[in-house]
Amino acid sequence: MIPQFVFGLLRSPLLRLHEEGIHPDYRIYLQCLFSSLEPSSLAKAIYPLLISYSSPNKQAFPRHTLSRAALTMSESPIFLLDAFTNLVVYYSSTADPSLPFPPPHDCLLRTTINALKQDRCITPKLMIVRGGQDDSSLFENYLIEEQDVDGSGYASGNGFISFREGIRNEVAEILKEESGS
């Protein structure tokens, strides 16, 4: 997971500039928050956890990649994104309309959310959104694996896969130079 954490940190507002729309005070807040977190919480703050549910009472898969491809390939209609300071429940646009929205208070999904809230040093903000109906930009902004490191978009080919390949090539080049000297 180290490459994912590095990529997530590079995409984090902590390393963004004021010119990119990140207020300096927010960066300082993140620096103070991140420095006080224990490792598992810091990991979620840097690289969120995406869990799918086939219904509010049944978890489908415990960890997905943070990509749109994961959403489309998964047949699950409900996703819980845990980004430490934010919890986002996302109902896909293809979710069966008979699924209860918002999830009932006595279901597994709500129990999980309540447990996550209780385990935090700060209370995360909870958002419940329906894809295609509500503004899902907060959820979509966490799908970082297709984004490039400098934030310029999704189609540039500089997402996580390209990032990982770039690291692999750089390491191979360094090792080649080291073994040749």
From TrEMBL:
Pfam families: Sec23_helical. Gene3D superfamilies: Sec23/Sec24 helical domain. One of its GO terms (cellular component) is endoplasmic reticulum exit site. InterPro entries: Sec23/24_helical_dom, Sec23/24_helical_dom_sf, SEC23_SEC24_subfamily. GO terms for molecular function: SNARE binding; zinc ion binding. Residues 1-43 form the Sec23/Sec24 helical domain. This is Sec23/Sec24 helical domain-containing protein. It comes from Aegilops tauschii subsp. strangulata (Goatgrass).
